[in-house]
Amino acid sequence: MYDFRDRAILQSLPLNPATIDGKAAIATEITVPASGSYTIVLSGQIQSSKPFEIRFPVTAIETSPTY
Prior knowledge:
Blueprint: E1 2-3, E2 16-20, E3 23-27, E4 36-44, E5 52-60
Antiparallel strand pairs: 1-4, 2-3, 4-5
């Protein structure tokens, strides 16, 4: 994960198995240091295929906990 200045702020995250709408998925939690723009980068390689990288921008906003 990169901040708006393209500085790496996270190198890797633990991935957990999940089920979403009855389909197998992976999940993780991300806590960012402050509100702002970030880029999440997913990369990997599946068996004999070529390595891949997916980048997508996100905007984090400060919220109050809802209990």
